[in-house]
Amino acid sequence: MKAISGISLFPLLLSSAHASSLLSDAVLRKGIHDVLDHQPIKHSECKQYKPTGPIETTLCDYETLEGVTEELFSNLSELVHLPFFKYFQVDLYRECPFWNEHGSCIDPGCAITTVDESDVPEKWRSTTLSKLEASSIEKRHELPGCYYRDSDFCFLDDNTEGDYFDLSLIPERFTGYSGPGAHRIWRSIYDENCFGLSEMSLMGGKSPAPISLPDSMSEVFENEDHEIDHAEHCLEKRVYYKVISGLHASISTHICMEYLNQTTGEWAPNLHCYIERVASHPERLQYIYFNTVLLLRAVSRLGPYLSAYDYCSTGTHDDDQATIDKVNKVVNIAHNVGRFDETVLFRGQNANVLKEEFKTHFRNVSRIMDCVGCDKCRLWGKVQTTGLATALKILFELDEKTLDPHTNANLLQRSEVVALVNTLYRFTESLEAVNNFRVMWTSMSTEDSEDLITKAEHGTVAKVRPRLTISRETKLTKSIRIATGIS
To answer: What confidence tens digit (pLDDT) does each residue in 215-225 have?
Structure first.
């Protein structure tokens, strides 16, 4: 099968995303070909300020992001292996606040190894950091083991409990965690916790595709007459959905990229898994691009703060400078590509109310991570929800004066900085994985690729999708509101 070169990804993604249903064989086939036949067109920087694709509120395009993915991935790969960015403290065993979660993943792939505190530089240990973080003048709303401030989009650990982990030694990949427990997590995030939008359905099929996302962005906002009420579902709610769905799609890509062949015991990319989870729904790839641009914009705004940060772990200038040099390379890329216009959101008469609702929902998602029954999944879920929440705070809560490192040196917890960079790395790694899957696809024979498409068709048609509805406050949302003390 020969690749299609020189084709813009925008109309390909847009036409597929606007299809009425991907259950149609013809549309599903086209979606898979659009994603996997595409060959990136590279640009060095974002020169086209008018969006040419369906990424809302961004001022850059898919091709530009693809053009820097390799360089960005290379720099981030080195950065997240440096001492400052690889050690992360988190309490993985806090009780699930919403339901009785007694189960856990018994598969060896779920297990992770902690790092002894003595191996962590003293200045990054909880006893030292707590003294700095306690100096913040912003009021904390505290719960056992965690808290949030008014500007936070997630709950943060208070470092009184928890273990240290070396993130560079814990890949995000297939663990075997699935079934009712995994379904319940995503169902809670989508059905119960996304502005009342019930747009998540459970699949009846087996792994590697236990979860289904909506077929298109427009489908999420249809009313009973299949018409879109743009007044009811404003830009902020659509952005929220894209952030959550982009995270889900990125996680799915990682799982498929490092998939365990349970027959041979070998780890390898699983193209069939990727086609079922992502490529057969091209809009999911859009959400990964969207989140990457959003994260890059946050890094760009945080550039001066990151450049002035004290990364030193050994007490030597060379150690600190090596980290700063690598950080500055990432920041420079972010300046060119992170073209996201955060000023178009949260404007108007009810802006503050809507922002508080947005923050409340995202905080709830961070709390749901305590209910994940797989240690490795819970770890990366906490890291990435914290990373995305940090990006949202940078974009929507902090002005330039607040971001000044000279007047606000302790603006962010160390865990927020580590999570932000590692989350950007995870999304960039997803984009790199997409390119690898495209190489696999183009090297296949027509017969083999046709067989994969046929399997995807059968798998998709077998999954029943309920009507999307708009609901009132759900039981889970109410329990979250009560548990967090939000009236």
So the answer is: 333 343 344 44
pLDDT for residue 128 is more than 90: no
Which tokens belong to 465?
Answer: 């999708």
Cα distance between residue 164 and residue 87, in whole Å: 7
Tell me the pLDDT of the chain averaged across its residues.
76
Average pLDDT over residues 429-440: 95
User: How confident is the model at residue 6, as a pLDDT?
Assistant: 39
Q: Is 377 a catalytic residue?
A: yes
Q: What percentage of the chain has pLDDT greater than the value 90?
A: 31
- The candidate with the shortest Cα–Cα distance to 416, out of 138, 72, 129, 139, is 129
pTM above 0.90, yes or no: no
**Alpha-carbon separation of residue 189 from 35, 179, 186, 218 (angstroms):** 26, 16, 5, 19
Q: Choosing from 105, 273, 312, 377, which is the catalytic residue?
A: 377
Most confidently predicted of 22-26, 274-278, 313-317, 350-354: 274-278
Lookup: tokens for 81: 């292996």
The residues with which 156 forms a beta bridge, in sequence order, are: 147
Does 45 or 73 have the greater pLDDT score?
73
* Alpha-carbon span 446 to 71, nearest angstrom: 32
pLDDT band for position 109 (cuts 50, 70, 90)? low
Lowest mean pLDDT among 71-75, 116-120, 240-244, 422-426: 116-120
C-alpha closest to that of 431 among 172, 66, 75, 170: 66
* Per-residue b or e along 356-369, where b marks 16 or more CB atoms closer than 10 Å to that residue's CB: eebbbbbbbbbbbb
